[in-house]
Design a protein that fits this description.
By secondary structure, the protein is mostly beta strands. The chain contains no helices and 4 strands. It has a single domain (2-47), classed as Ribosomal protein L33 (Rubrerythrin, domain 2). Helices cover 0% and strands 60% of the residues. It holds the Pfam family Ribosomal_L33.
Length: 48
Amino acid sequence: MRKKVVLACTVCNGRNYTTEKKQQSAERIEVKKYCKRCAQHTIHRETK
């Protein structure tokens, strides 16, 4: 089963993306994605 998570930009804290991950995974996701507010590629982390 998969769980929906929200990804937030580490620079501006904008919540730009949603994705899914395995429910058993305890680690937080970190992905480099494009942020519209910053107008550049930044690291996005999973939020609570």
